[in-house]
Amino acid sequence: MALGKYSRVDGRKSSSSYCSTVTVVVFVALCLVGVWMMTSSSVVPVQNSDVSMENKNEVKTPVIESNAENNNDARIDESSKPAVEDNGPRDEGQQKQFEDSQGDLPEDATKVDNNASTNQVEKNDKPEGQKTTMRISSKNKVDGEPQVENKESESGETKANNSDDKEKKSEENSVKTDGEKGEAQVVEKEENKKDEKTDQGPIEKKDNPPEVFPSGAQSELLNESTVQNGSFSTQATESKNAKDVQGASQPQNQNTYSWKLCNTTAGPDYIPCLDNLEAIMKLRTTKHYEHRERHCPDNPPTCLVPLPEGYRRSIEWPTSREKIWYRNVPHSKLAEVKGHQNWVKVSGDYLTFPGGGTQFKHGALHYIDFIQQSVPEVAWGKRSRVVLDVGCGVASFGGFLFDRDVLTMSLAPKDEHEAQVQFALERGIPAISAVMGTKRLPYPGRVFDVVHCARCRVPWHIEGGKLLLELNRLLRPGGFFVWSATPIYQKLPEDVEIWEAMKKLTQAMCWEVISITKDRVNGVGIAVYRKTTSNECYEQRSTNDPPLCKDSDDPNAAWNVPLQSCMHKVPAASERGSQWPEQWPARVGKPPYWLTNSEVGVYGKPAPEDVVADYEHWKRVVSNSYLNGLGINWSTVRNVMDMRAVYGGLAAALRELNVWVMNIVSIDAPDTLPIIYERGLFGIYHDWCESFSTYPRSYDLLHADHLFSKIKKKCNFMALVAEVDRILRPEGKIIVRDKVEIISELRRIFQIHAVGSPHDLL
């Protein structure tokens, strides 16, 4: 009993001590757990990421991200919303909620791949040629959030359930974003109206949906893996990757993108390569108009050019040929200086263009018809289709040549004739800012049917005729030089001196005088010369002056090539330039006579077949998709640029519309620009690592076919984005066809531009 008693007392003491010990241990354990939880919190996102990888609609890893775009873009209603989680099977009704409304999507593009989870990595490893079209719509931001329509479509090849028997289609995403200036999917800049959100319904599948890409063998035209130089040389060698690529690896976090307004003395008229005052101030001389030539900054600008105050949506063609909004190009100096010659006048809120010029005060059409009456062989719109107008003024000559089915490349410097090229572009007339100075113009040799100069203020006769010899390079054998200037009809000492010098020079160049007439309505004289079609005259000259160029001097080399005081020989039979092209419009649809089956085209076919296949492809794309499938109101489109043209197929396919297309052939691409001219179209060489020689707000529609992916490997990606924003008009659009990852990145960039910019830029 005693033992029991003492045992009980000891038990109480032991129990109390035990409780205290347990309490301390529990407290310490809780502290340790708390510390462990705090120090291990960084592991949680990894755990969540692992879980989310099982979700095919919400992915975190970069490898699968592009597949998320492939599988889900066609089902996203608004890009600003997060991805919809898919934690289990969905019934048909739930699935339709995230499908696109019917449009230009093929039937298969709306199908859900039940094996998306297991095939994500496989799908991400796509062939290089897979295409995506980005349609960007850009507006002045008033209120509301940007919206994106993502549409997937297939390339036209049959998609089979059995992958062993048939190949998968290439995919095409058509993305439309509403926001501020600079969005890049088809960029649509809208003025003076609020963003309206689109209520997008479920997809209704069509039996015969429009196709963005051709089916069958034609789809290989767009397979970038098959593109090659073929038998064509390049305007410049491929860029070496030694350049420090500023945009090669843009951060994925869209919050890192920021946009600022350009702070320059040129303000809303900023042309980076022509307004580089730092470079211009360092020039040793400006005797040969060096200060009017291109001087691009070492680091291309990534800022945004502001709108002029009071900017309004451009007036549509053809009304724009006669009048434009004054506030869009608020410059009145030219009206004060040239108003009496009917160049341009200020009339209330408008700038009006009576259609006159220094040499045709009573209208361009009379002047144009008078030239043909003097020289019937000119045959506007038939034999003569592509014209170069040097010193174009406000480009009324080229503007009214449209009435004669003639395409005119109007050219003038950015000089004291304030905004003359800007007036032309705002009117809907093709023009570029350039000068005949120390370098060749950026066109291939022997491509223009007619070259025109009406008091263009170019001293053709000086320094051995170096500038006139540049026209000789550009003019086709048998082509005409139309010169209207005071030395032809005035007898002042200076005029007589110039006329005598021109007579001597043109004879030495073997140019034949076809006509010297006086237009009594305008009171001016016009001289028309024709370039020789054979080398016989050159060989019979008593002196080799001007000299013939060396055989090694390529007449097509034109990018930053110094002018040469020499003449190239007329090509031998069967070579380009030895024959006149077929009359317009027959020439647009046929391969040039000088292409042979032994030459390999850009897409790997024999060159003549390559040109035809490219034309058929773009006719199909334009007809089945661009005209109806992208929501473009073509009545508002006038100025178009194909930023990466090959054979000019897009321009040829659009020729029935009331538009003109500036075809750009990159200097490191196959030199196909001569083919474009031979077809009765026109274009220019350019390097998209630099800014284009045009004013801001010049184009209604830009077309970029695999341009961004190439620039990303070569130079500053973001500078090209800013350049697109600069040259695109408010309410304008850009169609981007490229790889899915490029489309995704551009969408992120333009979304941030839309919601992040503090200014109403569009």
From TrEMBL:
Question: Mainly resides where?
Answer: membrane
Q: What Gene Ontology terms for biological process does this UniProt record contain?
A: methylation
Where composition is biased (Basic and acidic residues), the residues are 72-99, 140-209
**GO CC terms:** endosome; trans-Golgi network
Q: Which GO terms describe its molecular function?
A: methyltransferase activity
Q: How does it sit in the membrane?
A: Single-pass type II membrane protein
Please verify whether the record's keywords include Glycoprotein: yes
Q: Which residues cross the membrane?
A: 21-39
Instruction: List compositional bias (Polar residues) regions by residue number.
Output: 112-121, 130-139, 228-239
Disordered: annotated span? 52-216, 228-253
Q: Which Pfam families does the entry link to? A: Methyltransf_29
Keywords, A to Z, come to: Glycoprotein, Membrane, Methyltransferase, Signal-anchor, Transferase, Transmembrane, Transmembrane helix
Can you say where in the cell this protein is located?
Answer: Endomembrane system
At the top level of its lineage, which domain of life is listed? Answer: Eukaryota
User: What protein family is recorded?
Assistant: Belongs to the methyltransferase superfamily.
Name the UniProt record assigns to this protein: Methyltransferase PMT26
